[in-house]
Amino acid sequence: MVVKTPQALREALTDKGRVGFVPTMGYLHEGHGALIRRARSECDTVVVSVFVNPKQFGVNEDLSRYPRDLQRDLTVAGAAGAALLFHPDVDTMYPPGYATTVAVGGASEPLEGSARPGHFAGVATVVLKLLNIVRPERAYFGEKDWQQLAVVRQMVRDLNVPVEIVGVPTVREVSGLALSSRNSYLTPEQRERAAVLSRALRAVQAAAEAGERDAARLRQAGLAVLQTEPEVQLDYLAIVDRDLRERERVELDPLARVLIAARMFGVRLIDNLPLFEPLPSGLDEAEALSGTGGL
Ligand code: PAF
């Protein structure tokens, strides 16, 4: 069922038990399917929002051509177990006179924050509005947008938003390319070639797991792979700690990460991997996340 207004959504959620929420910008793929299935396995009712949020796009970005297909979204969301699709108009979310922006510090500053000024303020603003409208017990975000996940966790922590944020591992094509709605801009051959980004991340991860702790040398392992593909216009390849800070040496930490952003064939793609996988035995994700300042 599609609902278009906050009021209709609140009515539809009456007596529906524990609500799980998957915010999206639509054009759903298997990555969203994994989020919805995880939500369905943990909650009574799953709400998926489909809203292409203008506030998180820069002036020269792809807002007008961002892929949209509500019928397909309904099919994918329903098959994965969603009960409701919340699909508000822009005017419903930002009516005339709307004047509030949520600015998250810390996690939103480096990397994507400096490459895309205003992006995370747009994300935080819409996510907080959606959380206030849906009022879920849990909200599910893909780890593919690792920094976004960190920004949302920071906002929820700082503003005492009563929701549990759940990060769900990235779903990949067989080639290794991380699923993304923006992959639809690429031809099948270009998608194969774009898998070089995940191979570079794997090379960094393999070097870390082999014992390398020097961030410059880890980075070099990834750059060597990227140099095999002339289409890569690298924005950043960053080795970061749990607070998204670049350090000269890395620690054996399940939340240490390697993140990449690059333009290929005119499309900006991002991806990331943990430096160390799987988690060291005896340290589960909940324990890792309970430390101060981490994701
Ligand atoms: O990850 C996305 O699809 C978007 O940034 C989100 C979280 C739905 C906010 O518009």
Keywords:
binds pantoate, 3-stranded antiparallel sheet, Pantoate--beta-alanine Ligase, Chain: A,domain 2, 11 helices, single chain, 295 residues, 36% helix, Rossmann fold, disordered C terminus, alpha/beta, 6-stranded parallel sheet
Short description:
The protein is an alpha/beta fold and 295 residues long. It is built from 11 helices and 9 strands. Residues 282-295 have low confidence and may be disordered.
Textual characterization of the structure:
The structure is a single chain. The protein has 295 residues and is of the alpha/beta class. It is built from eleven helices and nine strands. It has two domains: 2-168, HUPs (Rossmann fold, 3-Layer(aba) Sandwich), CATH 3.40.50; 181-289, Pantoate-beta-alanine ligase, C-terminal domain (Pantoate--beta-alanine Ligase, Chain: A,domain 2, 2-Layer Sandwich), CATH 3.30.1300.10. It has helices at residues 6-12, 30-42, 70-80, 90-93, 112-115, 119-134, 146-158, 188-194, 196-209, 215-226, 285-290, and strands spanning 2-3, 19-24, 45-50, 84-86, 138-142, 164-168, 233-240, 257-264, 267-274. It has a six-stranded parallel β-sheet, with helices on both faces. A three-stranded antiparallel β-sheet has the order 7-8-9, covered by helices on one side. The chain starts with a strand and ends in a 5-residue tail after the last helix. Residues 282-295 have low confidence and may be disordered.
Tertiary shape: globular
Regarding quaternary structure, what we see is single chain
Termini separation comes to 33 Å
Number of helices: 11
CATH topology of the largest domain, by name, is: Rossmann fold
CATH superfamily of the largest domain: HUPs
Q: List cofactors, ions and other ligands.
A: pantoate
Element order: H for helix, E for strand: EHEHEHEHHHEHEHHHEEEH
* Biggest pleated sheet: 6 strands, parallel
Q: How many individual β-strands?
A: 9
- CA radius of gyration is 19 Å
Which class of the largest domain in CATH terms?
Alpha Beta
| Helicity level | 25-40%
Residue-averaged pLDDT, rounded?
Answer: 95
User: Which structural class matches the secondary elements?
Assistant: alpha/beta
Uncertain ranges? 282-295
Number of domains: 2
Label the CATH architecture of the largest domain.
3-Layer(aba) Sandwich
Q: Biggest sheet, strands in spatial order?
A: 1-4-3-2-5-6
**Content of β-strand:** 15-25%
